Every structure is written in C-alpha cells, then in structure tokens.
Amino acid sequence: MHLPSVPDAALSPPVVVRPARSGEGPPSIPAGLLPGHVAVVLDGNGRWATDRGLTRTDGHRAGVKAVLELVDGALALGLSHLSVFAFSTENWRRDAGEVGEVMRLISAFATDHGPWLDEQGVRVTWSGGRGRLATTMLDNIDALQSRTAGNTRLTLTVWIDYGARDELWQAARQIAIDSAAGRLDPELIDARTFGSYLYRPDLPDVDLFLRTSGEQRLSNFLLWQSAYAELMFTDTLWPDFDRHDLWAAVVDYSRRHRRFGGH
Ligand code: IPE
Ligand code: MG
C-alpha cells in the first residue's frame, strides 16, 4: 500500500480504509488454521519517511494508518488476537523529540480512532510500564480500554514501554516474594504458574510473529509467549504494510506444519 502524503487530517476520523476490490476479499481459511494470536513488530517508519524526504514523525503518522489497515484486515479475516509493539523499553533511547511525537500519536490513536474501533467490535487493551507515561496519555488509553472492554470480535493489544526481559524478571521477583511469604509453594511452580505472573496471562500464546522492514530480530517482544511462534519477516516497511500482506502471511502460516517439538 502506498501512502504518498500523510497530512495531519489522516489521524482524524472517519478512518479511510481501502475497501477490498472485487475478487480481492480475504482468503477463506478454516478457523482452526487461523493463528490464535498474531504479534507484529512494526518497523521501518523512519526509513519509509527518509525515502520520501519526510520527517520521522511523518513516518510514524503513516505507521498509525498502517495499524488501522492491519486491524481492518484482521477483522476481515476473522482473527481474534492481535498484538502490536508500539513502543519498547529500548525506544526511550531515541531523541526526546521523537519519543514525544510517538507518545502523542499513540495518545491520539486512542482518542481519534476509539469510536471506530469500538464500532467494529474491537476490544483494545494495552500493556507495559505505566510509570514513565504522561498522565493524559494514560487517561486516553485507559479510557479506550474501558470503553471497548465488552467487545468480543477482536482483541487488539498495544504494547507500550514494554520489554520481555522486564516482564520476565518482574514475574520472577514476584514469584520469589510470594514464595518467601508462604503464598506459593516453590515446589509446585511450573510453566503455567510462571505464565500467570506475566503482564497478560489472559492472552493466548503467540502463533504468528511478524516483523517488517527486513530486520530479523525479536527485539525483546513477547519472548515467553512466542516460544513456539512461527516467525515471519518481510522487507516491506511498516507504513507500506497492508491487509494483503497480512493475509499473505496468514495463508503462509496456515500452510506451515507446526509440530511443537513433536514429530
Ligand atoms: C518503528 O519504526 C517505530 C516504532 C514502533 C516506535 P522505526 O522508527 O524503528 O523505523 P526505522 O527502523 O528507523 O526505519
Ligand atoms: Mg526500527
């Protein structure tokens, strides 16, 4: 999908999503072959913008549009869980101006597109550290989470200030605290117990882990949850990623033979 210019108005509703042209509808994949949880590392906003002589902020704006396109494509396909890596614990190393813009865009995503997401039956949840986020942003994303809490069609989880290592050591620490306090028998700790200490034990394991922009790294995203995920990497830069790319990835996934370590 090519987005030649990305005016500010692109962030205001109504959301314009490209309707499927005839013969271009989603592939029909039996529900049992759909990935139960698709996790996406959206990467390449900066390079997309640089290629066009635009600012990195323009790239992030275009990235927000691509997230809406992804959600619409996921709805058309009938996916039930989608996770997007919006901001990592490592992203704080970027210059303060860019960090501020990304945060502002995430916040605007919640306010501007909340109504559309709600109408579509999307339950938006978010996860990650709260401590470093601005109060207005927290208010906006919390409000969207509450507003859409009853929706059941698709759960979109936005990971903000998230890092899997933080999540894992925090789980380990809490397990140690609970064990020391006698609330947990250390002998009985197993994978299920451990999983219940993660940020979002309600989410299913990741089945399909997708990253754009040619980078082939997990970058500290959902490491525990992706233990058996099918990994897919595409050279497409995130703002160019559209529903057809998602559908192609899911078709590829549905053809893979997952063995979970068996034969
Ligand atoms: C992804 O794109 C942005 C975030 C999720 C914060 P990048 O900003 O990493 O784009 P490149 O890698 O510089 O092209
Ligand atoms: Mg990057």
Question: What does this entry look like structurally?
Answer:
The longest helix is centred in the middle third of the chain and has 24 residues, at 96-119. Helix 2 (56-77) packs parallel to helix 3, helix 2 packs across helix 7 and helix 3 (96-119) packs parallel to helix 4. The protein has a single domain (36-254), classed as Decaprenyl diphosphate synthase-like (Undecaprenyl pyrophosphate synthetase, 3-Layer(aba) Sandwich). With 263 residues, the protein is of the alpha/beta class. It has a six-stranded parallel β-sheet with strand order 3-4-2-1-5-6, sandwiched between helices. The chain has seven helices and six strands, in the order E-H-H-E-H-E-H-E-H-H-E-E-H. The radius of gyration is 19 Å and the shape is globular. The site of 3-methylbut-3-enyl trihydrogen diphosphate has 12 residues, from helix 1 and strand 2.
Key structural traits:
263 residues; alpha/beta; six-stranded parallel beta sheet; globular; binds 3-methylbut-3-enyl trihydrogen diphosphate; binds magnesium ion
What is the element layout, followed by pairings?
Layout: E1 38-41, H1 45-51, H2 56-77, E2 81-88, H3 96-119, E3 122-127, H4 135-147, E4 154-162, H5 164-180, H6 191-196, E5 208-211, E6 230-233, H7 243-255
Parallel strand pairs: 1-2, 1-5, 2-4, 3-4, 5-6
Helix pairs in contact: 1-2, 2-3, 2-7, 3-4
The structure holds 3-methylbut-3-enyl trihydrogen diphosphate and magnesium ion (MG).
What is the radius of gyration computed over CA atoms, rounded to a whole number of angstroms? 19 Å
Q: Return the CATH class.
A: Alpha Beta
Q: Total number of helical segments?
A: 7
Question: Helix- and strand-based class?
Answer: alpha/beta
Give the N-terminus to C-terminus distance in angstroms. 39 Å
Looking at how many chains there are and whether they match, the oligomeric state comes to: single chain
Write the element-wise H/E pattern from the N-terminal end onward: EHHEHEHEHHEEH
Tell how many strands the DSSP assignment holds: 6
The CATH architecture term is 3-Layer(aba) Sandwich
Biggest sheet: strands, sense, closure? 6 strands, parallel
Proportion of residues in helical segments: 25-40%
Beta fraction: 5-15%
What gross morphology would you assign? globular
What would you give as the CATH superfamily? Decaprenyl diphosphate synthase-like
Total number of distinct structural domains: 1
Ions, cofactors and other bound molecules: 3-methylbut-3-enyl trihydrogen diphosphate, magnesium ion
Task: Tell me the strand order in the biggest sheet.
Answer: 3-4-2-1-5-6
